[in-house]
Write a structure and sequence with these properties.
28% helix; five-stranded parallel beta sheet; alpha+beta; globular; four-stranded antiparallel beta sheet
Length: 1246
C-alpha cells in the first residue's frame, strides 16, 4: 500500500526510512522446542470458533512474553494467514501514538482487506482533525474488518498487540479504552491477542472483556526446561564463535547451562542478558565461572537474580567505572540520556546533545561511541536505512533496575529526574546554538511549508535538534532550577522554535507544550516574565495558527507585526527583528477578548444555529448545526475541523433541538426525531421511532410531540421529553441507537420543557416540577433509584396568562449523586423578565441569584465539578459560588454585543469561553483573562476615506466632513472643510501639493462633486466643480482618479458593463470632456507622467488619452504569459527617461506572471525593478486574512481578517510609498509600514 494514505508524517517517515514500525523480528522468536505448551494453547484458541475473542498472555518482566508474540506473528506470516501485529517499545512514545494506524497498515497486506483499509485511511486522512485512539480503532480497524467479515465470513484474522504495559502512562489509558470499546464490535472471525505484564490498570480494562488468560509461570523451581535449552543453544553458539570446541566440551556446556538456568528462575531475559554479555567477551568461560560464583540472596521474586546479573554485567563491561573520574560521569551522562529520552536517539544525536552543554565538548564522539559499544549487553545499537545507528535499551527490565536506588548499586544508579532535567538543559543549549530565523532557507514570504522538501527540513533540523525542539520543554517541566534558562529561551528563541515546530508539522504539539509549561510555572511562579511571555505565545499561536501552519516564515512577516504592541512578546521580538512590517496606526495594545472566529459555516445568515462544546475537560471542540450543515471547529484557534452537509431534502428544513459532541463524534436530533451522527468523517441520518410498547399506551398522537431532547456527556444516550410528560431513552449499542421498551420511570405529568444530564443523573423540568434522578443502567454505583422532586412557587406562577409566553432552560452539573448543582432560568414575555434560580444538593431551596429585564436571554453554564455558575447577561459577566451563593466576579465584556446573544450561544463547561453566532461567523470570546485596560493606539476620529503619499490623509466622517492629515501619534490636523455628501474617492497629486475628493448627491446617476484642496497654500482653499453624469450611468464603478502631470486636469476613470469612460475636468474653469474606451475590459490603473497625457491600462490594452482634447490611441499588449491568465493588477513607476508599467497576473495554483512595459514604446522590457508593495488580494472566505502582494505578484504579508473582513477595497484601501492604509467597517484606521521589509528584500536581491 502507498504510504501516502498514512496521515501521520512521522509514521510515513518510519515506513520509508526503515525505522521501527512496531513489527515482529525473526531474532526475537522462541528457540525451536521452547514454550511449546503456551504456543499450542494459543493455536488452539486461534482455531476455535466459539472461544473468547480476546486472549491475554501475561507474566513478569523478562519471562518471555514478547518471544511468544514474535513466534505467533512469524508463524502466521509463514503460513500466509491473515494477521497484523504491533509491538510497543518502552523507549518510543511517538511509536505508541501511531499504534492504531500501523496496525491498520499491517492489515493492508492481507488479500481482500487492502482496499477496505485504504478506503478507511482515506476517510480519516483529514489533517485538520486529531481523532482519539478509540475513534481511530473503530474507523481503521473495526470498520474494515466488519466489511471483510461480510465478504469472507469463514476467514480468521488475528491481531497481535505486545507490550501494552510498555505503552507510555499518558497514552496507555486511551489505548486500553480503545481496545475495551472496540473489541466487542469486532466480528466473531477476528481474534485479538495481547501480551503484557499483569498490571492493575491493564487487568482492569481487560477483565470486562472476559479474555482467555494465559499466565507465564516463573520463579524458583518453576522452570519447565525452556531456559536451560535456550542456554545450551547460546553457549554452543558462543563456543563455536570463540573457537573453544576442544576446551569447552558439550558435557561441560550442558552442566554450565543447568547451573546457570537455576539462577535464571525461569526468566528468559536473564538468559538473553548472559548471552549478550558472553558474546562480547574474549574469554567467555571465565565470565561463566564468575557469574556462577556470584552469590544471590534468597528471594521469592525472580527479579533479584536478574538484578544481580545486571550488576555483574556492568562490572564486567566497565571495570574501571568506580575509580575512573572520567568514565563514571560519562557513563551517567550517556546512559542517563538514553534512559531519559522520550524516543530512541541515534548515536550522532546522543553525541550532539551531550556536547551541547559542554562548550567545545569535553566528551569526544569517540569516547561516547566506545562506551555505547562496551555496554552492548544492555544497550542495543541498531543500524537503520541511511546508515544511522539507533541506541535502544535492550529490555525494559534494565530501565527498571538502573533507575531504582533500592535495586541498583550507586556506581550504576541513574537518577531519572536529574537525567531528564540534564537532558532538557542540553536541549535548550542546542536550540540556543542552532535555531535561527528562516532556518530552512525559505527565502521570502511567498514560500509555503509545502515548498520545503522533507529532506531540506531534516538537513537543517538534524535529529538531535528535532528531538530538542520536540521534547526540551517536557524534560524541564516541574523543575524550578531551569527557570532562568527557560526565560532566556522565551526571550531569544521562542519564535524560531515555533518556526521549527511549524516546519515539523508540530504546531499543535507546541501549543500543548506551552500550556503544560505555563501550568507548572503558575504553581512555582519563580519568574513572572516567563508566565507573561508564555501566555502571549499561546494566544499568538492560536490567533495566527492558520497562517503559521501554512507558512512558517510568516511568524515574522504576518503574525508578529499584528501582535498587540503592549504585550511582552511584541516588545521583545519587535526589537530583535527590525526588517518587518510595522503597524504605525491602529494597532491594539493588548489581546482582545475575542480569541478567534470560525467562518464559512453553511446556510444563510438568517438561519438559526445551535452551538455545543464537548463536555470532557480534556477535550477542546466546538460543534455547530445549521439547517444544512454540521460543523466542528477548535475553540482555541478557530480552525474548522470538519464540515458535513446533510444528505437528503428530508432533513434540510429540520433544525436540531439537541446537539452534542465528543472529540470527532457529533450527534444532533430534531423535533421530528431525525438523528444525525458524524463518525469516522462521515454523516449518517436516521429517523428514530418510539417503541411500540410505549406508543401503544399513548392516549393520542398529539402526545407524541417532542418538546425537548438532550444527549449525555458520553453521547451514547439520548433523552426525549414529550408533551404528555413522558421521557423516552435511546441508547447506542454498537453502531445503532435502540430505544428502551419502557418510558423513563421519572417522567412528568405535564409537558417536559427542558432536560440536562451529568454523572448518571438526569435533571428535567416541566410546568409543575423539577426532577433529578438516575437514568437506568448507566447510573454510577453511588446513585440511588429514587428521583428528587422539587415544586416551586415560580413554576406555578408560570401558568398565569398575564405573564405572557413562558420559557425555561436549565444547566446541570454533578460529580456524584450527593454533589450536584442545577441552575434554572425562566422567561416571561409580558414584559421581558428573566430570572435565574440555583438548586444544589446541599440547599434544595430555589435561590434567585439574578433578575434581568434585558431583551436578550441570559447565557449560563455550570462548571463540571458543580462548584461555579457562569452567567453572561447584558454584556456583563457574573460568576457565583454554588455552595455559598457568593458573587465571585462581575465585569463588563467589552467585545460582546448583547443583540447577538439570542442566537443559541454557548459557554464551555469550564466557563472559560463564550461562543455565539453572528451571520456567517462564530465569535469565540475569552471569559477568563480580563483586558488590562490599556487603550489601543487607534485614532479617535472616524474616517470615511483614506489616501497615502508621503503623508496619510483622511476624510473625517460626520455631518461636517473635513479633509485632515493624520500624524504618526494618531492625532489629526484639519486641512479643509468638504461638502456634506459621502466621499467616494480620493486622489493626491504626484508632488503632494493638491488633493481631490469625489462625492455624489441626488443619487449616483445624477451629479458628482469634485473638490480640490491646495495643500501647499497656507489658506488651503478648496475648489468645487460639478460633474454631470448621463442617465445611463446606473451601474458604474470608479476605477481611479488621477491628476495630470501639470496638475491642471483631473481625470476620473469609470467602468460600466459595456465600456470604460474617462471624464477630464479642467481645474481652472471646470469644463468637462469625456472619452469612451470600448470593450468590456476593466481599467486597472491610470497615470499621468508628463503634460496632459493620461495612460490607462486594461487587461489586454493600453490607452494614451490627451486630457485637453479627449482624444486617445489604443495600443495592444502582447504578453507571453504561458498560462493565459487575465491580468490581476497593474501599477506605474517613473524612471529617469520614461514611465514604466508593471503588470502582474496571478492564479491561486499558478506562479505569478510579472511583466514590465515601456509606456513610450509600449514594448515589454527585461529589466530589474525595485520591489514595492502594490496590491491587496481580497478573499471573502479566507480563514485567516487577506494577502498583501508586491509589484511582482509575490505575497509579502497576511493582514488578519478582523482588520479587513467587511470593508470595500475601492474606497477604503490605499497603498503608496510602501505603506498600506485600511478602514474597517467602523471607520477605524489601520496603517502598516512595509518600508523596512521591502528595503531588506531589495538589499538581498541586489
Amino acid at each position: 500500500m502507498d504510504v501516502q494514505y498514512l496521515r501521520d508524517e512521522a509514521v510515513r517517515t518510519r515506513v520509508t526510512e526503515g525505522l521501527d514500525t512496531g513489527g515482529w523480528r525473526s531474532d526475537r522468536r522462541c528457540l525451536p522446542g521452547t514454550r511449546t505448551w503456551y504456543i499450542d494453547r494459543i493455536w488452539e484458541w486461534v482455531r476455535s470458533s466459539d472461544g473468547p475473542a480476546l486472549c491475554w498472555l501475561n507474566g513478569v518482566a523478562g519471562s518471555g512474553k514478547s518471544s511468544v508474540s514474535h513466534e505467533l506473528a512469524a508463524t502466521l506470516h509463514a503460513k500466509r494467514r491473515p494477521y497484523s501485529c504491533f509491538f510497543f517499545r518502552h523507549d518510543d512514545a511517538p511509536l505508541a501514538l501511531s499504534a492504531v494506524p500501523l496496525l491498520a497498515y499491517g492489515l493492508s497486506f492481507v488479500s481482500g482487506l487492502r482496499d477496505l483499509v485504504v478506503q478507511a485511511l482515506e476517510r480519516s486522512n483529514d489533517t485538520r482533525v486529531n481523532p482519539t485512539m478509540e475513534e481511530q480503532f473503530v474507523a481503521l480497524i473495526v470498520t474494515p474488518l466488519q466489511e471483510f467479515a461480510t465478504i469472507c465470513p469463514s476467514t480468521t484474522v488475528v491481531l497481535i498487540i505486545d507490550g501494552v504495559d510498555e505503552c507510555p502512562a499518558d497514552i496507555r489509558p486511551s489505548f486500553l479504552a480503545a481496545i475495551r470499546s472496540g473489541a466487542p464490535r469486532l466480528p466473531s472471525s477476528v481474534k485479538l491477542f495481547l501480551a503484557s505484564r499483569p498490571r492493575g490498570d491493564v487487568r482492569g480494562f481487560l477483565e470486562v472483556l472476559q479474555p482467555l488468560e494465559i499466565p507465564l509461570a516463573v520463579g524458583a523451581g518453576r522452570d519447565d526446561g525452556d531456559v536451560e535449552r535456550f542456554l545450551q543453544h547460546e553457549l554452543q553458539t558462543i563456543r563455536k564463535a570463540a573457537g573453544l570446541e576442544r576446551t569447552w566440551p558439550t558435557p561441560q556446556i550442558n552442566k554450565d547451562a543447568a547451573a546457570l538456568a537455576s539462577k535464571a528462575s525461569g526468566l528468559f531475559q536473564w538468559a538473553r542478558l548472559l548471552s549478550a554479555l558472553l558474546a562480547d567477551r574474549v574469554r567467555p568461560r571465565e565470565v561463566v565461572a564468575r557469574i556462577l560464583g556470584v552469590e544471590t540472596p534468597t528471594s521469592p521474586t525472580p527479579e533479584v537474580n536478574l538484578d544481580a546479573l545486571y550488576t555483574e554485567a556492568l562490572n564486567i563491561a566497565l571495570p574501571a567505572a568506580a575509580d575512573d573520574q572520567d568514565l563514571g560521569p560519562l557513563y551517567r551522562q550517556v546512559v542517563g540520556t538514553v534512559v531519559a529520552a522520550k524516543q530512541p536517539l541515534t548515536v550522532s544525536a546522543v553525541c550532539t546533545l551531550l556536547k551541547a552543554g559542554d562548550g567545545d565538548g569535553d566528551n569526544p564522539d569517540e569516547a561516547i561511541r566506545a562506551l555505547l559499544e562496551n555496554l552492548g549487553c544492555v544497550l542495543v545499537l541498531h543500524r537503520i536505512r541511511g546508515g544511522a545507528v539507533i541506541v535502544r535499551i535492550g529490555h525494559p527490565s534494565f530501565c527498571d533496575y538502573v533507575t531504582s536506588r533500592q535495586r541498583c548499586p550507586s556506581t550504576w544508579f541513574i537518577d531519572l529526574h536529574l537525567a531528564s532535567v540534564s537532558l532538557g538543559s542540553r536541549c535548550f543549549s542546542l536550540m540556543a546554538t542552532n535555531l535561527k530565523r528562516d532556518i530552512c532557507g525559505m527565502g521570502g514570504p511567498s514560500a509555503t511549508n509545502k515548498d520545503v522538501a522533507s529532506a531540506t527540513v531534516y538537513r537543517h533540523l538534524t535529529t538531535g535538534l528535532r528531538y530538542a525542539c520536540t521534547y526540551g520543554l517536557t524534560h524541564i517541566s516541574g523543575d524550578s532550577g531551569n527557570s532562568h534558562m527557560l526565560e532566556t529561551f522565551l526571550t531569544e528563541k521562542l519564535l524560531e522554535w515555533l518556526e521549527a515546530m511549524s516546519l515539523l508539522k508540530l504546531l499543535d504539539a507546541a501549543v500543548e507544550l506551552m500550556q503544560r509549561t505555563l501550568a507548572d510555572l503558575d504553581q512555582q511562579n519563580p519568574f513572572i516574565s516567563c508566565v507573561e511571555i508564555l501566555q502571549d505565545a499561546i494566544r499568538f499561536a492560536g490567533r495566527f495558527g492558520s497562517i503559521i501552519n501554512k507558512s512558517a516564515i510568516h511568524i515574522y512577516f504576518s503574525a508578529l507585526p499584528f501582535t498587540p504592541q503592549g504585550t511582552a512578546l511584541y516588545r521583545i521580538y519587535s526589537a530583535r527583528y527590525r526588517d518587518l512590517p510595522r503597524v504605525t496606526l491602529g494597532f491594539p495594545e493588548s489581546w482582545p477578548e475575542e480569541l478567534c472566529t470560525v467562518r464559512n459555516l453553511g446556510g444563510n445568515h438568517n438561519s438559526p444555529r445551535r452551538l455545543a462544546f464537548s463536555a470532557g475537560s480534556s477535550e477542546s471542540l466546538l460543534a455547530l448545526s445549521t439547517p444544512t450543515h454540521l460543523v466542528t471547529a477548535s475553540p482555541l484557534t478557530g480552525v474548522q475541523l470538519g464540515k458535513y452537509r446533510f444528505g437528503g431534502s428530508e432533513g434540510i428544513a429540520e433544525m436540531p433541538i439537541a446537539l452534542a459532541c465528543r472529540s470527532a463524534y457529533l450527534a444532533s436530533v430534531t423535533a421530528g426525531l431525525l438523528l444525525r451522527i458524524v463518525e469516522s468523517r462521515s454523516l449518517k441520518e436516521t429517523r428514530l421511532a418510539f417503541p411500540h410498547s410505549s406508543a401503544d399506551r399513548l392516549p393520542s398522537p398529539n402526545s407524541l410531540q417532542v418538546m425537548c431532547a438532550v444527549f449525555n456527556h458520553d453521547v451514547n444516550t439520548l433523552f426525549v421529553g414529550c408533551r404528555d410528560g413522558r421521557i423516552q431513552l435511546w441508547r447506542l449499542h454498537r453502531s445503532s441507537w435502540e430505544p428502551d421498551n419502557d418510558i423513563h420511570p421519572h417522567s412528568h405529568s405535564s409537558a417536559v420543557r427542558c432536560m440536562a444530564t451529568a454523572s448518571g443523573l438526569l435533571a428535567s423540568i416541566s410546568q409543575r416540577e423539577l426532577k433529578i434522578g438516575p437514568y437506568g443502567d448507566s447510573k454510577p454505583p453511588d446513585v440511588g433509584g429514587d428521583a428528587l422532586k422539587l415544586s416551586t412557587r415560580w413554576l406555578a406562577e408560570a401558568h398565569d396568562p398575564a405573564n405572557g409566553d413562558w420559557d425555561v432552560r436549565l444547566s446541570f452539573a454533578a460529580t456524584s449523586a450527593a454533589s450536584w448543582a442545577c441552575a434554572v432560568s425562566s422567561h416571561f414575555s409580558a414584559p421581558d423578565n428573566h430570572n435565574i434560580y440555583l438548586f444544589t444538593s446541599d440547599d434544595q431551596r430555589n435561590k434567585k441569584i439574578l433578575t434581568s429585564n434585558s431583551p436578550s436571554y441570559p447565557v449560563y453554564a455550570l462548571s463540571l465539578d458543580a462548584s461555579m455558575l457562569t452567567v453572561v447577561c447584558d454584556d456583563v459577566l457574573w460568576r457565583w459560588n454554588t455552595a455559598s451563593h457568593a458573587l465571585l466576579e462581575k465585569r463588563a465584556l467589552l467585545s460582546i454585543d448583547i443583540t447577538r446573544l439570542d442566537r443559541f450561544p454557548a459557554i464551555s463547561p469550564d466557563g472559560r469561553v463564550l461562543a455565539f453566532c453572528d451571520e456567517e461567523v462564530i465569535h469565540i470570546c475569552d471569559l477568563v483573562q480580563p483586558p488590562d485596560g490599556r487603550p489601543d493606539n487607534t485614532p479617535s476620529i472616524k474616517a470615511a476615506g483614506v489616501i497615502l503619499n508621503n503623508n496619510c490623509y483622511i476624510v473625517k466622517a460626520g455631518k461636517q466632513q473635513w479633509l485632515a492629515r493624520v500624524r504618526d501619534d494618531g492625532t489629526s490636523e484639519d486641512i479643509a472643510q468638504l461638502g456634506e455628501h459621502s466621499i467616494e474617492h480620493l486622489a493626491v497629486s504626484a508632488d503632494g501639493t493638491k488633493l481631490a475628493t469625489l462625492s455624489f448627491y441626488q443619487g449616483k446617476t445624477r451629479h458628482g462633486l469634485l473638490e480640490v484642496a491646495d495643500l501647499k497654500s497656507r489658506r488651503r482653499p478648496t475648489t468645487r466643480w460639478l460633474i454631470a453624469l448621463h442617465d445611463s450611468f446606473t451601474d458604474w464603478d470608479i476605477c481611479g482618479m488621477e491628476f495630470s502631470a501639470t496638475r491642471r486636469h483631473m481625470a476620473i476613470v469609470f467602468f460600466l458593463s459595456e465600456a470604460s469612460y474617462i471624464c477630464s475636468c479642467d481645474l481652472e474653469n471646470g469644463s468637462l470632456r469625456w472619452k469612451q474606451l470600448p470593450g468590456k475590459m476593466r481599467p486597472l490603473a491610470a497615470h499621468s507622467w508628463r503634460g496632459e497625457e493620461l495612460i490607462v491600462v486594461r487587461t489586454k490594452d493600453l490607452w494614451k488619452v490627451d486630457l485637453e482634447t479627449a482624444s486617445g490611441n489604443r495600443h495592444e499588449l502582447y504578453s507571453r504569459d504561458p498560462y493565459k491568465m487575465a491580468t490581476s493588477y497593474a501599477r506605474f513607476s517613473d524612471a529617469e527617461s520614461s514611465s514604466l508599467l508593471e503588470m502582474t497576473s496571478r492564479l491561486w495554483n499558478k506562479p505569478p506572471w510579472y511583466t514590465v512595459w515601456n509606456t513610450d514604446t509600449v514594448v515589454q522590457e527585461e529589466m530589474k525593478v525595485k520591489r514595492t508593495v502594490a496590491h491587496l488580494e481580497v478573499h471573502q472566505k479566507n480563514s485567516f486574512g487577506h494577502w498583501v502582494l508586491d509589484n511582482m505578484g509575490q505575497r509579502v504579508c497576511c493582514v488578519p481578517e478582523e482588520y479587513c473582513s467587511t470593508w470595500r477595497i475601492k474606497s477604503q484601501c490605499s497603498i503608496g510609498h510602501d505603506r498600506l492604509a485600511l478602514l474597517n467597517e467602523d471607520g477605524a484606521l489601520l496603517v502598516v509600514d512595509f518600508q523596512p521589509m521591502m528595503g531588506y528584500f531589495n538589499r538581498m536581491s541586489s
